[in-house]
Write a structure and sequence with these properties.
Largest sheet: none
Number of strands: 0
Radius of gyration: 22 Å
Shape: elongated
Strand content: under 5%
Oligomer: single chain
Mean pLDDT: 87
Helix content: over 70%
Order of helices and strands: HHHHHHH
Length: 177
Amino acid sequence: MTYSRPSRARTLAHYAELHVAGLFFLIMLAVVVANVFLRYFFRGGLLFTEELAYIGFTWSVFAAVAWLYRSRMLISVDIFFAVLPQRLQRGLSILVNLALIGANLWFCWLSWILAAGGFVRKTPVLEVPYFWINLAPVLSFGLMAIYSVAHFIQDAKGENFRASAQEQAELSEGSSL
């Protein structure tokens, strides 16, 4: 058996959303800290820091949400889902994924309408068109629609349910009360 390490490019692509989120979070953090420092010690701040913080916050949030959605790490309440038999869980999961494909495509479209009108309006100090800020939700919802299709295919094949059945069997074998 040979073990091959994933290439660096593949690893970077796998975590692209996290890298984008981290970069914009660092930008947001740096300009906020710099502005606080300048206001505290020099009694004045930079005008553009609020805009950069806003841009950084928007991009970091939407990039991180896309990654969380792909890795299925968003908060979910599945107490009723776990009570259902595995066959019903699979069917319900497929229905939910179909609904999420539609919802994410709809939100992507609405975000595009918002972004397309953003060339007219610009930020006050840096004069950055709001298109570039409003592009974050377009990309995020577009990625989430793609990930919803991938989740749908996985659930239709039953890949997630075989793993959970194995995990439940292992847990029940380990508990001896």
